[in-house]
Design goal:
Layout (H helix, E strand, L loop, with lengths): L6 H10 L5 E5 L2 H14 L10 E3 H8 L8 E2 L2 H17 L19 H7 L3 H11 L5 H19 L2 E2 L14 E5 L11 H5 L4 E4 L3 H4 L5 E7 H18 L7 E5 L2 H14 L4 E3 L3 E2 L8 H10 L4 H8 L9 H13 L6 E3 L2 E3 L1 H7 L7 H19 L4 H15 L9 H23 L11 H10 L2 E2 L8 E5 L10 E4 L10 E2 L7 H6 L6 E2 L1 H10 L4 E9 L12 E4 L16 H11 L11 H15 L6 H15 E2 L2 E5 H9 L1 H9 L16 H19 L15 H17 L4 H9 L1 H18 L4 E12 L3 E12 L5 E7 L22 H13 L5 E8 L4 E7 L10 H25 L11 H5 L4 H4 L11
Parallel strand pairs: 1-2, 1-5, 3-4, 5-6, 7-18, 7-19, 8-14, 8-15, 9-14, 15-18, 21-23, 24-25
Antiparallel strand pairs: 10-13, 11-12, 16-17, 20-21, 22-23, 23-24, 25-26
Helix pairs in contact: 4-5, 12-13, 12-16, 13-14, 14-16, 16-17, 17-18, 25-26, 27-28, 28-30
Length: 929
């Protein structure tokens, strides 16, 4: 069978290039420009005029004209504005019944884009309806109403819609050669008039090409291997076939998914490249400004909307320090969102400024917040496009500093382009103001949505492999075309006329077979590859599973396949380097490496060969920090929390408890996860303090199955006062006030159960600090509650909010490496030592408030029952705690905080917030793919 080639293009250009009235029309501008350059190589012409090589869209505009020469073509943007106005009219007095049901007429603004898209097709639809003499239904009546109103708007404003015309071809003395129009979506509309003209020659894909061998489609196990093989293929053709980098094109069907990975690998393998694809203006960092301003207003300046706007580092904010302070204030004060209370709207930020958790920054950041609200609302609530521009410059003057050295020029260009597009809307507004269609729901929303559809391609003067969207360069004469991710799904191209109709209606109108031109694009890529075409696909893509396009001949590179064929990446420097290090065999190191590998090795070697001794000034500073944090009166200060954190991981303890290094978290929550537990403790502290101050014992009245009325009043007052005086954010306090009944129920139920067990006991201490001086360290504890029985026995009670707060491994299991819970054993030891021989603790219990349940850890009191071996386990655990405390004090004195002090598991390290700093390594599997 024959192979696909581009002879048909070259023959046509060579035969007609010397006729100066010959014009060659290609599907895209990049194809036209490249064939103009290519023609100099084979046509015999010494030079060519670029205007003789044009794109299809340019040809339509210049040679296929409307019969209405006195009218102007409607801009596509004006269609959308018309659709916005149409929906607004329908919301005031509904006239659409089916495509927008009347019950949703008031909230149908998002339909404007869809209506704008179907406007060009309504004329074809109406013609076919009339030709087929079809009885219209309710949906068709709606389309006819939209058609009528749109036609009336066009006629009243001296406009025409090109898609509604049956335009003649106007001879202009040129001979046109149109290449491969079968891949153009709208060619069918012009086919008859063009192919009947003597001045136009249409060149289709020839039958020999369609009957030629299928191009190869290289199939891989996953996209990582696929892209690696593409990199080696590119180096192969560049070195062996001497193909210049700028003569290679990589076409990508899904640029959003594959693009970042492709660029990363091109950088790693040192292949120069140029990204020739655009992104919406609103998808770029600086271009996001306008949608972020809108979100602030639509979300009533919620924490997330303000954080997203102000932490957009692509914008030249004047006061970044004040911005950070405002974000931190919002997080600490739970400024999640504003709310309504008793029919009144409450701005959570303004209320938090009145009652802040920390008032130190309020004076500086409150004006910033007020200015942000004022200028943002001013721009978002603009009543015209020109007003948006005016208010934008006011906002810019207030908040931005374009003279900042770290503000990229590219971001300035993006913002300028956004304002330039706004200028185009202003021109339309001025020119068509009298038409009445600029009565739209929101000018600012329209502007933001408009930016979503404007593509921005950064100007790039560098040379290298061209990265392009799929289909764009199918007809361009690159030496090598590479199409990655050439799966059946991503490379299928089907054109569907009147797609806004249901399939049954399209069938009645005669639109049965949709145009599947997938094969044509595959053939054109192969045809226009001057030296080679390389199609790739993987079974497991970045985001799905896939199989090779059916128009490709699959070459299987999956190692587990029976038809396995080796790829280009058999000798990959990165893989060889990895295997050499894993096997500790220098002979396996690659002969050549890339710059990124050398840089990585040099950095590693520099660290390995550098003097391990810490700089004296740094060592001194670190030592002083450790001593100041952990020592008191030349002794190590030991708390239960310190022991718990240290024996979870010494290095994590050092980072968090000594150096105050914490993972950055800018997320705001409704309330702190520990806040409700702290509130319960605060309320009980108030209650038991009141009992102690009044010398009232804990009393339970069995006849009413409750505490006495007097104590219940004290308890209810403690709940109310506790919530009012609780140190928390404004939003948290308001939430607790609204939940006071529920909180009261939990506390009352818990106190009832507590009082029943400790009926007649007196409150000895509440939230009391105790210290115990040991030989080389000081124990420091805080007891939640200590009671005295009528017989003078002491009971330590530790309050827990939920059962989950009680450790599973409360007792030591006797294993050398295990660590028990330190809390109650240490509390008893410290209190006993403090009281010496005068008294001793006779019971230690956890009390769960939510469930009103006890967990007895130790008891010598007959009324507090325990299992036979509990006291023995408790005392053994206490001895273990003392032993671990001494070891901790010894490590702290030596400043030893290495993870190697403990046998830490992979699961413990994998979830650690400090793993990126610590870099502790585990080999979890011997197998590498």
């Amino acid at each position: 069978m024959n192979k696909i080639n581009d002879t048909v293009i070259k023959n046509c250009i060579s035969a007609n290039i010397k006729n100066l009235n010959s014009v060659f029309v290609f599907p895209t501008q990049i194809s036209a420009s490249m064939w103009a350059d290519k023609a100099l190589e084979f046509s015999g012409a010494a030079c060519v005029a670029l205007e003789r090589f044009i794109a299809w869209d340019e040809f339509k505009g210049a040679s296929i004209r409307s019969q209405h020469q006195d009218k102007n073509s409607i801009p596509s943007t004006l269609r959308t504005i018309f659709a916005e106005n149409l929906i607004l009219q329908n919301s005031v007095s509904p006239f659409l019944k089916s495509i927008i049901t009347q019950e949703f007429a008031q909230s149908a603004t998002r339909f404007s884009t869809w209506i704008a898209k179907i406007l060009p097709s309504l004329s074809m639809w109406k013609t076919n309806i009339e030709k087929k003499n079809i009885t219209v239904d309710e949906e068709d009546q709606d389309f006819l109403e939209v058609y009528k109103r749109y036609k009336e708007f066009l006629d009243n404003n001296n406009l025409f819609d090109p898609a509604w015309e049956t335009p003649p071809f106007k001879p202009d003395g040129n001979k046109y050669f149109i290449f491969f129009p079968e891949i153009l979506m709208d060619y069918a509309e012009y086919q008859n008039i063009l192919e009947s003209s003597n001045d136009i020659t249409v060149i289709h894909i020839d039958e020999d090409s369609k009957n030629a061998e299928k191009p190869d489609g290289h199939f891989y196990a996953n996209s990582r291997v696929e892209l690696k093989d593409v990199m080696h293929y590119l180096w192969n053709i560049h070195n062996d076939k001497k193909v210049p980098w700028n003569k290679i094109a990589i076409s990508v069907p899904d640029m959003d998914t594959y693009g970042p990975y492709l660029e990363r690998d091109l950088d790693r393998y040192e292949i120069p490249h140029v990204l020739r694809t655009g992104r919406p203006l609103s998808a770029n960092g600086a271009g996001l400004l306008f949608s972020q301003l809108r979100n602030c207003c639509s979300e009533d300046f919620s924490y997330d909307s303000i954080k997203t706007l102000l932490l957009n580092k692509e914008l030249p904010w004047k006061e970044p320090a004040a911005i950070d302070m405002l974000i931190n204030f919002g997080r600490e004060n739970n400024c999640l969102c504003s709310y309504e209370y008793n029919g009144k709207k409450i701005d959570v930020w303004k209320e938090s400024f009145k009652y802040p958790v920390d008032s130190s920054s309020v004076e500086r950041i409150e004006p910033l917040y007020k200015d942000l609200i004022f200028f943002t609302e001013k721009i978002v609530k603009s009543k015209s496009f020109s007003e948006i521009r005016t208010n934008y410059f006011l906002f810019r003057e207030k908040f931005f500093d374009f003279a900042k050295e770290d503000f990229p020029l590219e971001n300035d260009k993006i913002l300028s382009r956004c304002i330039s597009e706004l200028g185009g809307l202003i021109d339309l507004e001025v020119n068509f103001l009298d038409s009445g269609i600029f009565n739209i729901p929101s000018f600012y929303n329209f502007f933001c949505d408009y930016l979503d559809g404007i593509m921005y391609v950064p100007q790039n003067s560098s040379r290298g492999v061209q990265i392009l969207p799929f289909k764009t360069a199918a007809c361009a004469p690159f030496d090598v075309h590479v199409v990655v991710d050439a799966s059946q799904n991503n490379t299928s191209v089907v054109y569907k006329q009147l797609s806004f109709l249901r399939d049954d209606k399209r069938k009645v109108l005669g639109f049965v077979n949709d145009s599947n031109i997938t094969e044509n694009f595959i053939l054109l890529y192969a045809m226009n590859s001057q030296k080679d075409a390389f199609f790739t696909c993987s079974e497991k893509t970045i985001d799905a599973y896939a199989f090779t396009n059916s128009y490709l001949n699959q070459v299987d590179h999956r190692p587990y396949s029976k038809s396995f064929v080796p790829g280009y990446a058999e000798n990959d420097p990165f893989t060889e380097e990895l295997n050499a290090y894993l096997s500790n065999d220098k002979r396996k190191l690659p002969e050549k490496i890339f710059r990124v590998q050398k840089t990585g090795f040099d950095n590693w070697e520099k660290c390995e060969r550098s003097d391990q001794e810490i700089i004296p000034s740094v060592k001194k500073s670190v030592s002083e920090k450790i001593d100041n944090s952990l020592f008191k009166n030349e002794k190590v200060s030991v708390t239960v929390s310190d022991l718990k954190r240290f024996y979870e991981c010494p290095r994590a303890f050092m980072m968090g408890s000594v150096f105050d290094v914490y993972k950055e978290d800018s997320a705001a929550t409704l309330v702190n996860q520990f806040a409700i537990g702290n509130l319960y403790h605060w309320i009980l502290e108030k209650y038991f303090t009141a009992l102690k101050d009044r010398s009232m014992p804990v009393m339970y009245d069995a006849s009413i199955k409750s505490i006495s009325d007097e104590q219940k009043k004290v308890l209810i007052d403690s709940v109310k006062y506790g919530i009012e005086s609780f140190h928390a954010s404004h939003l948290a306090v308001q939430l607790y006030k609204s939940s006071m009944a529920a909180i009261e129920n939990v506390i009352v139920n818990a106190v009832n159960v507590f009082s029943k067990t400790f009926n007649g006991y007196m409150v000895s201490e509440i939230e009391k600090d105790y210290e115990s001086n040991e030989d080389d360290f000081i124990f420091k504890t805080r007891i939640d509650c200590m009671l005295v029985s009528p017989d003078g026995e002491l009971v330590i009670v530790d309050f827990k909010s939920t059962k989950n707060s009680i450790p599973y491994n409360a007792f030591w299991d006797g294993q050398a490496e295990s660590v028990p819970n330190f809390q109650l054993p240490v509390y008893k030891y410290v209190v006993d030592k403090k009281l010496k021989q005068t008294q001793k603790v006779s019971a230690c219990v956890f009390f769960v408030l939510r469930d009103a349940e006890f967990l007895v850890m130790y008891s010598d009191i007959d009324d507090i029952k325990i299992k036979d071996d509990v006291n023995e386990k408790f005392l053994m655990t206490q001895n273990r705690c003392l032993e671990l405390a001494k070891k901790y004090a010894d490590y702290a004195r030596k400043h030893e905080f290495s993870p190697a002090l403990l046998k830490l598991s992979y699961s413990a390290c994998s979830g650690c917030n400090y793993k990126s700093i610590c870099r502790r390594i585990f080999t979890v599997s011997p197998a590498w793919d």
